[in-house]
Amino acid sequence: MESLFKSLEDEIVSGKDISVPEFLKTWLSKPKLNFIGNQLCESNSKKVFCNTNPATEEDLNWVVLSDKVDVEKAITVAREAFNKGDWAKLTQSQRAQVVKKLGDLILQHRAPLAILESLDTGKPIFETFEGDIPRAASNFHFFADFAKEEETLQFQNGLDEHQAFREPLGVVALITPWNLPLYLETWKIAPALMMGNSIVLKPSELTPLTACYFAELTLQAGLPPGVFNVIHGFGDKAAGEFLVSDPRIDAISFTGETSTGRAIMRSAAVGPTRVSFELGGKGATVIFEDADIEMAATETLRAGFRNQGQICLATPRVFVHESVYSKFKELFVEKAKQIKVGNPLNYSTRMGSLIGREHWEKVMSYVCRVEEPMKVLLGGDRPKEIKKGAFLGPTILENVPLDHKISREEIFGPVVSIYSFSDESAVVREINSTQYGLSASIWTRNTERAQRVARSIHAGLVWINCWFARDLRVPFGGQKRSGVGREGGKHSLDFFSEWKSVCLRRTQ
Ligand code: NAD
């Protein structure tokens, strides 16, 4: 297998259109099953649903459709595994060995995972191979090292010895979206495992593939049965909702739309169950007159169009100081024209298709609202040379009123509006005027101003002269309606564990 994967890696980076290798075709030809207690299981109802490739609109494979019985079974098995303690009672160092191995296995299987992720999402293989899959591996490597070093606290107070340490929570539910499937699943799985929990994961119904493939890797890593379980199916009034409404779940970590977060919070009231939510965003970039305009345009291009703009941290609103507006606009549109849109399975492609027809129609419903004096500077439709698939080229708008739906709602597609501004406090007010508060970027050479603006923007993440620069120790999450709680480093460990304090009073 090693030499097969190596030649597949070479083929990916060669720049040729790659075809799906035979072993993956065989893998795809079998229906994708739930993974419960280290076994692949059919669903109770025996029903399946079809998973399609959004770039070709062809059927990819069948996936089991889970119902309440399947969800209850997964939770029961996860609880039994937790109570048995084969994972929960290991030391951090023992768990770290297995968690690290999961990261190694992902790197070993980088090529097939990247191909599956591109087939399932329509995103370019350049992104899955160079970005998403290596990042999934580093989620395991990072948390294995980081959590291993977690301290036990000790305090002496007179005769009393106080000790505090972490304990696992129990069974945790992980619910994830389609835009960065394995990347975001592993971002939750790694700390949940390191803290000794048992997991029931429900991946997005639109992107089940890499979760299935990963489940098979957990067998090789040596996770005890029942510690990691995957159930497939839909969210609302289906597997997702059954999972988060079950009072035996000890915590819910969810990433997805703000409206789904509201629904899950209602379901979680049954516990009440601990929740962590990473929700929608409507990011903004502000470019001041003294910014490095060339660099700002290049990075804003990434921020606007990477993953077809389907990133919660994307920047659909770009505010440019009036004195450099024309220069920026020209550069930005020119650079956007150079983005290669096309076959996701070609390494030189930089934009693939959106997640599917339904989402394409949602994004287009915003673009179709453009009317005088608004202008489409670029894009606005499927590129002419592409005949089918959920493709939309980089789309740049101007003169969009700030109170327009396009300026205020999360579109989650490759649609960027540029606005001219003259006054610092007014632009900060505009940036802060949506219900979201996830991320923003500031471009200026004036560090004092950058720091001042960063503090006045209501967002959980602010980048100065960059975008999406990440350190996995840093708290990650949104303000306002963009989230509840924080992930990353210690924050993920806090969420997935319970601190216990023990006081010992020494007697003679
Ligand atoms: P979504 O909310 O539609 O679905 C996410 C997951 O929730 C899916 O697995 C779905 O089946 C499940 N679900 C749906 N209804 C449910 C319910 N009632 N109970 C339990 N589970 C339910 O989101 P999506 O369309 O998959 O993803 C796009 C959204 O995710 C965007 O809003 C984006 O901003 C957000 N997102 C946020 C972050 C972040 O870090 N803040 C990261 C990525 C994506």
- Main sheet characteristics: 7 strands, mixed
Q: Please give the share of residues in helix.
A: 25-40%
Count the strands? 22
Q: Rg to the nearest angstrom?
A: 23 Å
What structural class should be given to the helix and strand makeup?
alpha/beta
Number of discrete helical segments: 17
**End-to-end separation:** 64 Å
Strand order of the largest sheet: 14-15-16-13-12-18-19
**What's the shape?**
globular
Low-confidence stretches: none
How large a portion of the residues is in β-strands, by DSSP E? 15-25%
Bound molecules: nicotinamide-adenine-dinucleotide
| Mean pLDDT figure | 97
Key attributes of the depicted protein:
single chain, 508 residues, alpha/beta, seven-stranded mixed beta sheet, six-stranded mixed beta sheet, 22 strands, binds nicotinamide-adenine-dinucleotide
What does the model show?
With 508 residues, the chain is of the alpha/beta class. It is 39% helix and 20% strand. The protein contains 17 helices and 22 strands. It has helices spanning 2-13, 22-29, 68-84, 92-108, 110-121, 125-148, 181-194, 209-221, 239-244, 258-268, 293-305, 325-337, 357-367, 405-408, 424-431, 447-456, 489-495, and strands spanning 34-36, 39-41, 48-53, 58-64, 153-157, 160-168, 171-175, 198-202, 228-230, 251-255, 274-278, 284-287, 317-321, 375-378, 395-398, 415-421, 436-437, 439-443, 461-464, 479-480, 483-484, 497-505. The strands form six sheets. The chain has a seven-stranded mixed β-sheet with strand order 14-15-16-13-12-18-19, with helices on both faces. A six-stranded mixed β-sheet has the order 9-8-7-10-11-21, with helices on both faces. The protein has a three-stranded antiparallel β-sheet with strand order 5-6-22. Strand 12, helix 11 (293-305) and strand 13 form a beta-alpha-beta unit. Helix 4 (92-108) runs antiparallel to helix 6 (125-148) and helix 4 crosses helix 8. The longest helix is centred in the N-terminal third of the chain and has 24 residues, at 125-148. It is globular and about 80 Å long. The model has no long low-confidence stretch (mean pLDDT 97). Residues 175-179, 202, 204-205, 234-236, 240-241, 244, 255-257, 260, 263-264, 278-281, 312, 410, 412, 438, 478, 483 line the site of nicotinamide-adenine-dinucleotide.
